[in-house]
Every structure is written in structure tokens, then in C-alpha cells.
Design a protein that fits this description.
By secondary structure, the protein is an alpha/beta fold. The chain is built from eight helices and seven strands. It has a seven-stranded parallel beta sheet with strand order 3-2-1-4-5-6-7, with helices on both faces. The N and C termini lie far apart (about 50 Å).
């Protein structure tokens, strides 16, 4: 049976995607740093896993060596939220975010490409951000890194067609452990929610639903796309 490899598999969005994949009978291999959480998910779903820091040398090659059989899906749901004015950012901050988000996504595709090519209809899903297409203060590092993820999506979709589809999902603020610093205040949640046409923040399953669709054959004529799942934030202004 072909496998979906989910980087960030112990995070909020990765876990939600895992639930969707296994609910339709698929198998998954999870990648993350939280060994305890990965073990829990493996017991719950039958998934396999590799506990690794993707910034460590050789991490992607290690994951690729531990995945058995062909891969029909690859998800890179690893990200960061480092919100500082540019005066508060140093070179290491920019390099860290770029390596984690953009370079990591590229190296994941490269490492798993032989296995993806063994599938008759493989799909890659990357995760960007509404901040890649909208300008927000204090977002210089993450906006730059996620914009690179979108550029990678276009390049890989062209290069790997027609056998491997590559798409990208761009959420707005979503209630996950990663965004806890922004969502642990009910007043802040309400204020940010009001900036969205749908008047709420995203839930992990909002992102998982479209990601899982893109992994399946039902999305067989969709590639090279960046799909905003953002409550209308990237396109709509219902106030002012």
C-alpha cells in the first residue's frame, strides 16, 4: 500500500491531515520532533513515524530510508511564526525561517522523489501563509520564507508534471499549538477574527480538508496552485 508522508505530523495541521488520510483508509508515515506525541498517534492510527529535527544534517535522507514502499502523498506542514519588526530580526532569524519553511520543503521533495515516482499518481502538498501575498507588519521573516514556498510550488509543479502534482495551501491564522501565543487571549482572537470575512479563525480541519482533497485522485487535474483557506482574508474587505 502506498503511503502519505506527513512532515509536521505531530502538529495541529499535520495531525488533522493524518485523521483525514486514515479515515479514507490510507496509511501514513509521520515526521516530527515530539517523540511522545508521534508514538501516541502511531498507536491511535497505525501510522509509522520518524522522530527527527529537519534542521539536522541528513534528516530528510533518514526519513526517506525509513519509509517502506512507494509514496503517493507528501505533505510538508512544518512552519514557524516569528513576528518581529525588521529591527528586531537578525540574520540568524531570517536564515532559520527560510531553512525551516522553504529549504526544508525543497529537500523533502528531493529526498522522497524516487518513491513518489513509483506511484502512478503522486501528489505533494506544501503549506504557505496568507502573509505571503498580503503585507502585514512584523511579518518580514515568515512572509519572505512562505513566499519562497509558493515559488517552489510553481517550479516543482512544472518540473514534475505530469506524473506528480504539486500544490500549496495558504491559511490565515489557524488555532494550533504553533499559534498559541496569538490565540491564548479571547480578546485577541475576537479582534483578529473580525478582520476575516467569515468572522472566525481557522481550525486545523479547515486546512486538512483541502489538503487531503489535493492528495486524492479527485484533484487529479489540479497542479501548480496556491489555494487560500483563509476566511476571505487574502481577497475580501467587508469593513472599511
Amino acid at each position: 500500500m502506498a503511503t502519505t508522508v506527513i512532515y509536521g505530523g505531530s502538529g495541529g495541521i499535520g495531525t488533522a491531515i493524518l485523521g483525514r488520510v486514515t479515515a479514507r483508509g490510507g496509511s501514513a508515515h509521520l515526521v516530527g520532533r515530539d517523540t511522545g506525541r508521534l508514538k501516541e498517534l502511531a498507536v491511535e492510527t497505525g501510522a509509522t513515524f520518524t522522530a527527527v529535527d529537519v534542521l539536522a544534517p541528513g534528516s530528510f535522507e533518514r526519513v526517506a530510508s525509513e519509509v517502506q514502499g512507494p509514496i503517493d502523498g507528501l505533505v510538508y506542514a512544518i512552519g514557524s511564526i516569528k513576528l518581529k519588526p525588521i529591527g528586531g530580526l537578525n540574520e540568524d532569524d531570517f536564515v532559520h525561517d527560510f531553512r525551516l519553511n522553504a529549504v526544508g520543503a525543497a529537500l523533502a521533495i528531493k529526498a522522497h522523489l524516487p518513491s513518489l515516482k513509483r506511484s502512478p499518481a503522486a501528489s505533494v502538498v506544501l503549506i504557505s501563509s496568507v502573509a505571503a501575498s498580503q503585507g502585514f507588519a512584523a511579518h518580514a521573516s515568515i512572509s519572505m520564507a512562505k513566499a519562497a514556498v509558493e515559488g517552489l510550488t510553481f517550479a516543482m509543479a512544472a518540473e514534475l508534471a505530469p506524473t506528480i502534482r504539486v500544490n500549496c495551501v495558504a491559511p490565515s491564522l489557524t488555532k494550533t499549538p504553533l499559534s498559541k501565543s496569538l490565540t491564548n487571549s479571547s480578546q485577541m482572537v475576537e479582534a483578529i477574527a473580525q478582520l476575516h470575512a467569515m468572522r472566525r479563525l481557522g481550525e486545523p480541519d479547515d486546512i486538512a480538508a483541502i489538503s487531503d482533497f489535493l492528495l486524492t485522485s479527485e484533484a487529479g487535474w489540479i497542479t501548480g496552485q496556491v489555494i487560500g483557506v483563509d476566511g476571505g482574508r487574502s481577497r475580501l474587505r467587508t469593513k472599511g
